[in-house]
Amino acid sequence: MKKLMIFAASVFVTGQLLAQVSDEDLTQYVDPMIGTQEMGHVFPGACVPFGMVQLSPDTDTIPYAVNGEYTGTVYRYCAGYQYNDRTIVGFSHTHFSGTGHSDLGDFLVMPTVGKVQLNPGTAGNPGSGYRSRFSHSSEKAEPGYYTVQLDDYGIKAEMTTTTHVGFHQYTFPESKDAHIILDMNHSIYNYDGKVLWSYIRVENDTLVTGYRITSGWARTNYLYFAMVFSKPIQNYGGKNFEDLVYKGGWKKFDQEHNFPEMAGKNLKAHFDFETQAGEKIKIKFALSAVSTEGALKNLEAEAPLFDFEQVRQDAKKRWQTELSKIKIEAVPEKKITFYTSMYHTCINPVVYMDVDGQYRGIDYNIHKADGFVNYTIFSLWDTYRALHPLFTLIQPERTSDIINSMLAHYDQSVHHILPIWSHFGNENWCMIGYHAVPVIADAWMNGIRGFDPNRALKACISSATYKKYGNLGDYMKLGYVPYEKNATGSSMTLEYAYDDWTISQLATAIGKNDVAAEFEKRAQNWKNLFNEKTGFVGAKDSEGKWKTPFDALHTANEGFIEGNSWNYSFYVPQDIRGLIERMGGNKRFCERIDSLFQMYFPDKYFAETEDITREGLIGCYVHGNEPSHHVAYLYDWAGQPWKTQERIHQIVNTMYLNKPDGLCGNDDCGQMSAWYIFSSLGFYPVAPASGQYIIGSPSVDEAVLDLSKGKKLVVKAVDLSEKNIYIRSVSLNGQPWNKTYFTHKDIENGGELIFKMGNKPNKKWAVKDDSKPFSMTR
After folding, report:
1. Closest by Cα among 77, 283, 292 to 189
2. What span, in angstroms and rounded, lies between the C-alpha atoms of 539 and 76?
3. Mean pLDDT in each 10-residue stretch from start to end of the chain (778 residues)?
4. Going by C-beta distance under 8 Å and a sequence separation of 6 or more, which residues neighbour residue 396?
5. pTM for the structure as a whole
């Protein structure tokens, strides 16, 4: 962890001074070790922004299930790494960042010396396998680079990456028995039978190729590799640990010693060397979802030489470019949290095509991306809320590519729908809603072009009317999802209604008024589950009867997923004014939000929910899970924006900390971090596709956002301090601003947003009805 200088006070820095530090090395403020412990640590390893290869240490081999029963502890290994572990089993090439479920962990490499061992051993007895002890004192992680000392072997491990290539550098002691282990069976969330097939081919004394097919969260995942050593292999071997009845004609060979082909479902290999003290063995490990030929093309294009330091510096430059899209002035502690959040938002999605544009589609055929970069890893239930709106703001070209990737998914899908939660050429169907829809609608509403809006609208409608998915047949017939048909039907109804509204927004924007009217009507379906007697969104059966008994605090079996009615009842981002009326008006609505933040939430209500812990709670408000991320901003609709300002600072200061367990919940492919970035700047997209950003309260002194094509938005917080968290006044482009929102069009050509801060609420600022943000109900 970084040692920080302590500053006595936050100092406001003018635009002139900020310009002087515009070339500052922003990577110094990124700490990849910041994450969560119990709920799936973000991976600390090496990657480039949006790179397919994410090369990182895996610290154990906890299986998904034992004897057919879910272990429960595997959840902590969503990213493969746990900070509290004391052994490393190796370094694999694909990872998720802070997800609630997992997969990947492809092609684990581990350097060793001494007797060849082809099993990983155990944490309690590392010497029983190829794993090694390590200490955090020798561990260093920074953007594009990771290093650690493997104590059991005296080997220094270093790694960096390009988009498709993992570059390993291992400094060995003197040894006549030095080895590189390649475990083709290792996976994250592994189980017996996950590897459907694997294959290794030793092409010559420095080149090894191969592939494997796995069936995990991605049901059928093809991944190919090309592995090049900097030093000729002396000997090699491997073993397929399957118990095979039939071996065919292959049994005539000794396949375990220097035989150039190895295949099976439980395959592990070793490559042997003799080393001098301090000698470095380098490995370039390229990936492709298409073929070994594709992996070799990627290798030649991105890392033709064995120059580890050059690749490392290139990776650092790429990170500097991405981090520089927002430059802030703040105390160092704030910069670390901010730029680590920026780092997290640039990990996923990842490029999913070879350098020649070929990729494996959702139909498992090989396609070529024509005029766009194909991406994968779409955790859309999370990321439509803030990550994709952030991309729309500062990554417009990438946003266009992402949407074209989603439309390609739609074209190739036998279901003819957009991605739900997809990765590595597969739909894994996780979570609810059809949240590619708001990503597309928000992008079009905010000026992103480069895709056909009519084709996009067709894909959105197809996704919203596919009756086989998520009880959409019931939703379309009844106007809600009944709880006896689906235990999370109330959540589904609320999220479908919001998605439907975004379809109406897109349809209106391109002149499809009949479609707009249809989906605007569907967007009001949230009202069908608002129980006037209880004042909460509840659950109904198919006959329209309310579920009884009903507990608005309970997170299980009440109609909601990863949340309870207390939180989800505020989830009507398209019609906050309508919700306020249903809840009894502005005063009562604000009291309801006050209660959410202030009440005591007993452990029994979230004991059954593994991704909610006390650390992610403020009262009953659950910041550690996404459905509540907009709630603190809702005071702006009800005439008390100063309470939004208070709550935003409370969340920023308590839910994001500079330590290994500093995040209050799963980062979920960047959503948690995107919330922090927006909120630190002083605004947030509560209802993507509305074209509006809702004003909160800034917590950085100054920021410059690169909106591309030379356009910049400057945000200043005058007199900001730990006590001065309230907005006294706002100006936009030199004009007084008395609204609790501004539109994307207001800033699309750049400008200057100035907040004047004080230590007391200004209860006259932006409280009139015409100062409030969009709502379907006027």
Report:
1. 77
2. 32
3. 30 38 86 82 92 98 90 91 96 94 97 98 96 98 98 98 98 98 98 97 98 98 98 98 93 96 98 98 98 98 98 98 98 97 98 98 98 98 98 98 98 98 98 98 98 98 98 98 97 98 98 98 98 97 97 94 96 98 98 97 82 85 94 98 98 94 91 98 98 98 95 98 98 98 97 98 97 96
4. 447, 448, 707, 708
5. 0.96
